[in-house]
Design a protein that fits this description.
The protein is an alpha/beta fold. The protein has 2 domains: 183 residues, 3-Layer(aba) Sandwich (D-Maltodextrin-Binding Protein, domain 2), CATH 3.40.190.10; 159 residues, D-Maltodextrin-Binding Protein, domain 2 (3-Layer(aba) Sandwich), CATH 3.40.190.10. Helices cover 29% and strands 22% of the residues. The protein has 13 helices and 17 strands. A hairpin with a 4-residue loop joins strand 8 and strand 9. The radius of gyration is 20 Å and the shape is globular.
């Protein structure tokens, strides 16, 4: 079983990486090589917002299956996909904060050796809500409200942390939140004051009658005098909040609660966490002008937040990976996730139900059902 200092070690790694603006993974390094003898290494790549609950999940899973050693690595959700589809690393389980990335990037890309898609099924297992994280020392912390936060964040003296939308789902959802807030209040002057003149190549917004399109350039770097601080993943912004280097950052509610930060909830029409407002969220789209993806042009339509998990077609340890996914959907894992403020769906939805391992079919319902 992992040391109780496991999460502390991860936090130290975060601090060591804070000065980097690129997407950097956070790896589970608590297992020494001597511990791996006669154990099956199970490589799990997951979204950064799952670090804390998955660390506990890992311990419980290894207690049940002592012959398996979970090697977990955490990135922004898009970067998780790239490690499979572009970098062709041997990965057993993929868990992302945006389930739509799996069909977009894994269904559409093929394993070089076999020509089959990297995935043809996934399970949507949980949701979340976007919220604004801050501390009591944040600028205007005593004045910010659910209604005036766009005006507060437009102040050039307020430092706003942004996870890179080219790598992280939280990043492009942050951009969406400003557009959704404009639609909610019918005031179309929130996005520009916060993001204009902050980057060497602009992030642009185009409003049509039915759809607002935000375009992120391939090169995204902040200007020297910018009030936006860019990092590769939203989890990397936590230490900057705690140190006072930034005042605010959009994070998932589960992450904010796990780190005991101040939280400003967003309206139902903005936080992207309710099925009833799906059509409202659909009114915004983010396009990535990003040539790193060889086969697709990433476009993300606003929708209810959904976490997805799958086993790549070329996973070296597919049977053990299925055990991990099944454990995630078990009552024991549900208790762990809920204790960390991240609830699972009562009925996980499976896309590509007939293609998934039979051992997992009984734990899900097909998303194709009406």
């Amino acid at each position: 079983m992992k040391s109780k200092n496991h999460l502390l070690l991860l936090t130290i790694i975060w601090l060591d990486l804070m000065t980097s603006g690129c997407s950097i993974g956070i790896q589970d390094v608590s297992t020494q090589p001597s511990d791996l003898t006669n154990k099956t290494p199970l490589v799990v790549f997951a979204a950064g917002s799952l670090i804390i609950p998955f660390a506990e999940l890992e311990q419980a899973f290894e207690a049940r299956y002592p012959d398996i050693d979970v090697l977990a690595e955490y990135h922004g959700s898009i970067q998780v996909m790239r490690h499979v589809t572009e970098l062709h690393e041997d990965i057993d389980v993929v868990a992302t904060a945006d389930a739509s990335l799996i069909p977009l990037l894994m269904y559409a890309s093929s394993v070089p050796e076999s020509g089959q898609p990297f995935a043809d099924w996934y399970i949507r297992f949980a949701s979340n809500r976007l919220a604004l994280a801050y501390t009591p020392e944040s600028r205007d912390a005593d004045e910010i409200t659910e209604e005036n936060w766009p005006d507060i964040l437009a102040d050039p003296q307020v430092k706003l942390g942004l996870s890179d939308p080219r790598f992280d789902a939280s990043g492009y959802r942050t951009l969406m939140a400003f557009s959704l807030m404009e639609n909610t209040q019918e005031r179309y002057n929130f996005f520009g004051p916060v993001f204009d003149e902050q980057f060497t190549f602009p992030v642009t917004i185009f409003r049509d009658d039915d759809l607002t399109t935000i375009t992120v350039p391939e090169i995204l770097e902040t200007r020297p005098d910018a009030h936006i601080v860019l990092r590769g993943g939203s989890i990397m912004l936590i230490a900057l909040l705690e140190s006072g280097d930034i005042d605010y950052a959009f994070e998932y509610e589960s992450v904010i609660q796990q780190h005991s930060l101040e939280m400003l909830p967003l309206p139902d029409t903005v936080h992207m966490g309710e099925t009833a407002y799906e059509s409202v969220y659909n009114a915004v789209q983010v396009n990535l002008d990003f040539q790193r993806f060889a086969t697709v042009k990433p476009q993300f339509r606003g929708e209810r937040i959904g976490y997805g998990i799958t086993i790549p077609a070329n996973a070296p340890h597919a049977e053990e990976a299925a055990l991990f996914v099944a454990f995630l959907l078990s009552p024991e894992a549900r208790t762990i996730m809920e204790a960390n403020h991240h609830s699972l769906f009562e009925f996980p939805l499976a896309d590509g139900y007939t293609a998934m391992p039979e051992s997992l079919q009984a734990l899900c319902i097909p998303s194709e059902l009406p």
